[in-house]
UniProtKB/TrEMBL annotation:
This is Anaerobic C4-dicarboxylate transporter. The keyword rRNA processing does not apply. PANTHER family: ANAEROBIC C4-DICARBOXYLATE TRANSPORTER DCUB. It comes from Xenorhabdus hominickii. Its main location: membrane. It catalyses: fumarate(in) + succinate(out) = fumarate(out) + succinate(in); L-aspartate(in) + succinate(out) = L-aspartate(out) + succinate(in); (S)-malate(in) + succinate(out) = (S)-malate(out) + succinate(in).
Amino acid sequence: MFPIIDNIGLKKGIRSERPMAVASVASQMAITASPISVAVVSLVSIIAASHGIVQAYGILEILAVSIPASLAGIVIAALWSLRRGKDLDKDEEFQEKLKDPKQREFIYGGLETLLDQVLPKQAYWAT
């Protein structure tokens, strides 16, 4: 996934670390907030309730907290990431690297992308 994010970022002139950082955090938050993960916590809560612990939380209570908290965290991380580093066209160090033909070829060369390509309808079918 990260090579795809990097490729699209370079093609659009966006620093690759901006979307990559948020993508890695968002994937972990999705795992944490998923009902499957919450189901394990709920099972522990049910077992605790059966052993006499009074305050046990169910899956709905846990999801009511974990999903909005995860979504808010991802939005905040994405907004923060927008301000991370200079844009590539304003980054002196990056522009200096592009002046060297070898570096430019290393950064941009050989990147094949499907960005802006129109594919046949069958290409979107799950196989």
